[in-house]
Amino acid sequence: MSSLDILAGTWTTAGAADAGADDDRSPHDFRTRVEVAAKAGFTGVGIGYLDLLEAEKTYGHNDIKAMLADNGIKHFEIEMLLNWFVTDERRTFADEQRAIMFRAAEAIGARHVKVGGDFSGGDFESDHMAAEFQALCRNAADAGTRVAFEPMPFVNVKTPQQALEFVEKADHPAGGVLLDIWHIARAGLDVTSVASIPARWIADIELDDAPLQFEGDMIADTFNGRRLPGEGELDVQGFVDAIKSTGYDGIWGVEILSTEYRKRPIEEAVPAAYRATAQYLQ
Fold first, then answer.
1. What are the domain boundaries of the chain?
2. Fewer Cβ in 10 A, N or C end of the chain?
3. Whether pLDDT at 1 is above 80
4. How far from chain centre, in Å, is Cα 4?
5. CA distance 104 to 174
6. Which of 230, 227, 235, 232 is nearest to 279 (CA)?
7. pTM of the full predicted structure?
8. What is the 3-class SS of 78-143, one letter each residue?
9. What gap in Å lies between CA 262 and CA 134, rounded to an integer?
10. Directed axis angle between helix 266-278 and helix 30-40, to 10°?
11. Start-to-end CA span in the chain (Å)
């Protein structure tokens, strides 16, 4: 096995899960996903909220922790907390999710919890986001984990630079920005622009690929149109080299959301994702 630390993001092992739907649970048991990922060479795995609830019900926190350790999985990721900063009725459910995610993160030992922006779009108020993010980071630190904010071109915080406006203002060691090549490219940015981001604020990296042009809805594209690294037209190596130039020394993730990828058996798809990602990190 390679000594590379690569994390299989939630959707990389989820098989034919209906990503983006209200019920986005994987048809595969979490133990199966962990074992397939470990066999492929991954040292990290991610899990989505609904699958986390299923795994908690089936195994419990202690058994999940043991399952990861027994398979050599050192890095555990939980996603995706939304609406942690809103002031409307969505906040109630978000706070319930927040408590469950951090409780699991503490009991199992999560590297980080992924958090996102407002899918209804609009603008963001930097001071408000900073205050809420700082509070979120304190919760994460209390649970022995971190939070990784993922900017996306179709939410209120569209670019890494916008995210840094409040992440730097919050100035908490338990928080940073997640940089996904797909979201950066679809935001119209040069993927090598990440070289200007201070390494201390880079919480996580996600690799994938895509055609330069796409048709239709961008949110549909993010759930269905991605490709394995090297199978699209994005400058994956340029992105990796730009990240490395910052001094970032953390793990690398691969996140594949693709109609075609979901059709493949996970025993075939997950090793393919590992090989496609590892070629850029050697």
1. 6-278
2. C
3. no
4. 18
5. 17
6. 230
7. 0.96
8. EEEECCCCCCCCHHHHHHHHHHHHHHHHHHHHCCEEEECCCCCCCCCCHHHHHHHHHHHHHHHHHC
9. 37
10. 40
11. 13
Distance of CA 143 to the CA centre of its chain: 19
Evaluate the CA torsion angle 44, 142, 156, 204 in order and state its sign.
negative
DSSP state of 24: -
The 10 Å CB-count burial string (b at 16+, else e) for 107-131 is bbbbbbbbbbbbeeeeebeeeebbe
The string of pLDDT tens digits covering residues 9-28 is 999 999 999 998 999 999 99
Q: Report the chain's mean pLDDT, rounded to a whole number.
A: 96
The whole-number average pLDDT for the span 176-189 is 97
Q: Amino acid letter at 166?
A: F
In the structure encoding, which two tokens stand for residue 28, read together? 């595969």
What value does the CA radius of gyration of the chain take, rounded to a whole number of Å? 17
Q: What is the CATH number of domain 6-278?
A: 3.20.20.150
**CA 19, CA 11: separation in Å to the nearest integer?**
8
Q: Could you read off the pLDDT of 76-116 as tens digits, one per residue? A: 999 999 999 999 999 999 999 999 999 999 999 999 999 99
Which helix (H) or strand (E) is 178 found in, with range? Answer: strand 175-180
Q: How far apart are CA 237 and CA 279, in angstroms?
A: 9
Q: What are phi and psi of 88, to 5 degrees?
A: -100, -165
User: Where does 41-83 have alpha helices with state H?
Assistant: 49-58, 61-70
**HSE toward the beta carbon, residue 105, CA cutoff 13 A:** 28
Give whole-number Cα distances, 20 to 13, 79, 131, 150, 268, in Å: 16, 13, 29, 16, 23
